[in-house]
Specification:
globular; 5 strands; 7 helices; alpha/beta; about 160 residues; D-Maltodextrin-Binding Protein, domain 2; five-stranded mixed β-sheet
Length: about 160
């Protein structure tokens, strides 16, 4: 009986150890470059949540600090970046008047893993208005959590 208990315990431990590495393998991630501040916090939360819900693609926020977003995309350090540029630089996906533009790099446009991301972001661009964004950014500026604000904003409009 003791031998059977040991064998079962050993099998259980082996099964748990063998399954652990598989749990971390989830798929491609998009790297989104952002600056700091309530506007960038909300825009990142909005885009990250919408992309995750509509395409299943995870995102990782990459702080850009004083870096040039277009240069970061060109150097392939980020796939998407929010930029407060006024001239036409890069491929703008989301460009509401008065807010940072979301620029896309070649990986988002050309990689087959991300074929659903650009259409989803273009749809989001057609849904949100500068007035909507101003209201949500004001909430975040007053202390509301960006992710919760983005989820509430998208949910109340039926966009999730």
């Amino acid at each position: 009986m003791r031998r059977l208990t040991r064998v079962l315990a050993l099998l259980l431990v082996t099964a748990l150890l063998a399954a652990a590495p598989a749990s971390a393998c989830f798929g491609p991630k998009l790297y989104i470059g952002t600056d700091v501040g309530p506007e960038q916090d909300f825009l990142y939360a909005l885009v990250a949540l919408y992309v995750k819900e509509k395409t299943g693609v995870e995102t990782v926020r990459v702080p850009l600090a004083a870096s040039d977003p277009v240069a970061e995309i060109a150097a392939a350090r980020v796939d998407l970046a929010f930029a407060a540029v006024t001239e036409e630089r890069g491929t703008a996906i989301l460009s509401p008047v008065g807010f940072s533009r979301l620029l896309a790099g070649p990986r988002v446009r050309d990689d087959l893993q991300f074929t659903t991301v650009l259409p989803a972001l273009r749809k989001l661009a057609g849904l949100v208005t500068p007035a909507d964004l101003a209201q949500q950014v004001a909430s975040v500026s007053q202390g509301a959590a960006p992710a919760a604000t983005a989820r509430h904003f998208l949910s109340t409009r039926g966009w999730l």
